[in-house]
Amino acid sequence: MLTSSQQQLLRVISQSGPSSRTVLAASMGLSKAAMSGIVRDLISLGVLRETETIYGQGRPSILLDLHPEGAFFGGVSLLEDPAPLVLCDFNGNIVARQTMPLSRDPDVIAAMIADTLPKLLSECKDAGRKLSGLGIALSGFVDEKQASCVKSTLLGWQDVPLAGIVRQKTGIATFIENDAKAVAVSEKLFGGARDVQNFSVVSFDDGIGCAHFVGGKLYRGNHGGAGEIAHCTIEPSGAPCRCGKRGCLDTVASLKAIKEMAKAEGLACHSLDDLETEASLGNAAAIRILHRAGSALGLAIAHLIQFNDPGLILITHVEGRFDGLFGTVMRQAVEGNVLPRYAGQTPIRTQRVDGDVWARGAASIAAHNFLIGPNPY
Ligand SMILES: [Zn+2]
């Protein structure tokens, strides 16, 4: 267990990148002597390392950075079957991967993780000794302690204290989190939003997920449900949604909805890429579908911008592309639906991610807790 000063120093470096002792002492309001002591302890723990020497005016300074092999974190995604279990280093890189059958039974999940973990750790030297936490990503609402799943339609759960069940079985500190929130934490810790304090991540997949960071902290809302744009009504009296409402964003703009609309129109398109190709050849139905979906997603993002005024909207997508008609219409819909003073002010970045985005996100939840400590939000 790290002290709060040690955690603070690691947190500063994780947000600002490699820094010298002098810069760290100034940013934490500590004397150089106190800083040297903390740095010495963290280096001996193997969590911090000295990297390059910077020569400028005065004495050369040595930069300090997180040691990639200083700590390892496990991440499980309960969104796929088989469920991936990955091992990430302190830079968020996946260094080992295993899979296990997906189950809806929390005790079976805990037993499977306990069975699979030794195989995962055997793939990486020292990982067993330095495993510093386990994260689990799932579809649904999670309580603020990241311990209990309040509600998951996909898993059929209500108030399931999964983190404790897994911890009891494995002996490893375990945290659970909603899938989109896990990806947002991953982007904040290791990805494209590292130096942004206010941003929203929109995960575009079979369903649409969303999570916000406000003032550098994950914003959960009162019931853990902040960011559920998938079920914002975007077409009043539109198609029925699995949530019981009608016209939700998910029924128009998710990858699943787009593919279903293509099928209903008799198009032999099995992916967004196929549909983009058809649209570029002038197929009216393909153009209509992409227009409808892009407009809906753009309108939802315009609302996000109006509500929160974020410094970045980051759209992650496993499949598809945003440089065709869909992405163009989406951007036009954003610009056309925000107040003129917001227009063009919010960068919208798209990022293709691999299928392990959820498991990596889960591992980053464990890393975040290691850096921030208990009750992080
Ligand atoms: Zn819905």
Report the portion of residues in β strands: 15-25%
Note poorly predicted spans: none
Total E-strand runs? 16
State the order of secondary-structure elements, H for helix, E for strand.
HEHHEEEEEHHEEEEHEHEEEHHHHEHEH
Instruction: Report helical residue fraction.
Output: 40-55%
N-to-C span? 19 Å
Secondary-structure map:
Blueprint: H1 4-16, E1 19-20, H2 21-28, H3 32-44, E2 48-54, E3 61-66, E4 72-77, E5 83-88, E6 94-100, H4 106-122, H5 127-130, E7 131-138, E8 141-142, E9 149-152, E10 157-160, H6 162-170, E11 174-178, H7 179-190, E12 199-204, E13 208-214, E14 217-219, H8 250-253, H9 255-264, H10 272-280, H11 284-308, E15 312-317, H12 325-337, E16 348-352, H13 357-372
Parallel strand pairs: 4-7, 7-11, 12-15, 15-16
Antiparallel strand pairs: 1-3, 2-3, 4-5, 5-6, 8-9, 9-10, 12-13, 13-14
